[in-house]
Specification:
Chain lengths: ~210, ~375
Amino acid sequence: MTSLVVVSAGLSNPSSTRLLADMLAAATVGAAGAAGGSAGVDVTVIELRDLAQQMTDHLLTGFPGPELSDAMDAVRRADGVIAVTPVFAASYSGLFKTFFDLLEEGLMDGTPVLIAATAGTARHSLVLEHALRPLFSYLHATVVPTGVFAATDDFAGAGLDGRIARAAGELVALMPGHDAAPRSTPVRRLVEEEFADPTPFAELLRQAGAA
Amino acid sequence: MQIGIFSVGDVTTDPTTGRTPTEFERIQATVEIAKKAEEVGLDVFATGEHHNPPFIASAPTTTLAWIGAQTKRIVLSTATTLITTTDPVLIAENYAKLQHLSGGRVDLMMGRGNTGPVYPWFGKDIREGINLAVENYDLLHRLWREDVVNWSGRFRTPLQGFTSTPRPLDGVPPFVWHGSIRSPQIAEQAAYYGDGFFHNHIFWPVSHTRQMVALYRQRWEHYGHGPADTAIVGLGGQFFMRKNSQDAVREYRPYFDNAPVYGHGPSLEDFTRQTPLTVGSPQQVLERTLGFRDYVGHYQRQLFLIDHAGLPLKTVLEQLDLLGEILPEMRKGFAEGRPAHIPDAPTHASLVAAAGGAKDSTVYAPADSATGHRAEDAEELVVA
């Protein structure tokens, strides 16, 4: 089973950010099916609004509450991520950024990511390129070429479906299927991996002395 | 089983009065707290190390020596000693000196520190934290065990023909614990040397503690120090108690809500559920503490943090009185079901016995081959 994690930072209910996130997820599942992935796609949706309190607590205490911890684990294990934020003050929302701030360093190394954003006007559309794409580049994620921006008007327009389909196709092409080769991107070692397979002390000592 | 307290030496405003103690008051209070700890029957007093306000925890061996001079029995320890930014040569000298002054009542807990700028202030790079802890401790370990050390590494000037003085008391270095919340490499390090591992335990969920201690125990066995359940484990803990649990919650809440570490974050109720913090009656503190064994196994040292967040000295001393009252029950509880092969925390006496008795470890400087004089005679030569 391929794991797709959808992170949505919409605040209202119903939220156009969540609507766009669901459309992207459905298109990705559809594209995966069309590509002949026999194993199917397991979709997990993370609504950041529900984790807002725990994220603030984590900033202050240094550890995640149980639901936030589960959400971070889901991103860690994801074969692909769809990340969708509303535009606030010409950028991603603070809530959206906070979630990615809290992830362990290296946790998204090589993870395929589809970026998307919503706003009241199309004048914000380059937010994908000047805010979201650099953020995920910093996190060493692999961002698909097509980002999807939806202004309010787009939900009545003709072009949104096409952009969603193209982005979803690009994401599926990067997500490992049943037979796909493992990710070739070099990844940083996470704490969990260190627990499972500790670096022997002789090697730690060697690393300490290696300039 | 050793039971004691540790202090981080924070100077914090009492949120109920708005009053902030002076450094003088806080330093004197720390000494009072340590003396009281011995008086109520505790085994260990440990002080943290910080090099910035709002802490009074710099110069830990000065504090510990002063406390040592006014106590008879309590073990003086650190929580933690900054192995990353402190010259291992100075650690070797300072704590060996403290051993001699206190009759061996000293051990140390190594840690990396938590204030970013402390690294550049001492000429180090925070990104090298683990590497500094590994290399510096390796040198410290040798300085206490080899009379003459030739050494070179990345993080300090090389040493040629260096003897750290005084030599460890009776030829036995102080026992060392390594403390870390979430770095498996430090558990690995502690296991490799056969040293103790301390998990601070207080601000984080139990799952962290369980995972770190399990790794340490497994690697302890891997390195041939004995079965996993004989590894030397210490835990932190945190409580506030009153006879009546509602009184404890009411009195502690403003301190919790404004505490430096977790204040203005989760509720007291959430935090006590998620972490080992216990706010309640002495019986509740007793039961929760004895429950720590459920996820780390039988262990050797339990230290409580009781003097932070602006709690006034009078309140802290009352907490110590209450702890003293449940101490016999706590000791009895820890002894219950404890298999005979589980060791106690090493002390100077037990380490000396294990080494086959006390040795004079003094390095008497030899006369040099050219003049027949010793370094100590140099002054006489100049005078002559």
